[in-house]
């Protein structure tokens, strides 16, 4: 067997992190060599994830873990407060970041793209790793050519920190490439409660729902004369993201620069 791709999972204690640990362990082309969490140094990964990892322990030192494991890829599902430093650290050590955390600016992504190219490595930032969500965004961009009046409702669990979601922002960006910026709704409409009409992106409205019970869901609603079209994707559980994560760990080895959006690996 050819050398397996050596993967460190950052945020391995969290719900997405635990699913990633399982997915990496179950793929014969990947090898889990590190699990990082700032609160669990020295704790067996198996005790937290319920999956046997051959005695692998959590570390709270990302620099040390990336160096000692000779990692190829860092998968990161942490939060916006720490993700930027983690990406910088990975690139510094020549480790390819695969990132599912959202909330980065286009300027930051462009800077990481340059840094990756300087080191001769690839990176992936994906607002959504679910294949169905990528198809939903692609179909929405196509539909906008014919039905330019569109609003987005995205619904996530109540622990999500950023709004709108990275998936909603990516969807808006893709649609904006296919339609002219335009106003929607009545020109004299009035909000009796501020924010009732949602956020405004080039005339498109986006609404964020945060409630317990949700995982990740999005509706893209188009309106036309005498008709509406709704394109919807639902992630029922976090396993839905794992095929995209595993694919990214493999494909990132072939790239130089930062890839923004899983669609760039699929199509």
Automatic annotation (TrEMBL):
Catalyzes the conversion of 4-hydroxy-tetrahydrodipicolinate (HTPA) to tetrahydrodipicolinate. Belongs to the DapB family. It is found in: Cytoplasm. (S)-2,3,4,5-tetrahydrodipicolinate binds at residues 157, 166-167. Pathway: Amino-acid biosynthesis; L-lysine biosynthesis via DAP pathway; (S)-tetrahydrodipicolinate from L-aspartate: step 4/4. Its main location: cytoplasm. HAMAP family: DapB (MF_00102). This is 4-hydroxy-tetrahydrodipicolinate reductase. Homotetramer. The lineage of its organism: Bacteria, Bacillati, Bacillota, Bacilli, Bacillales.
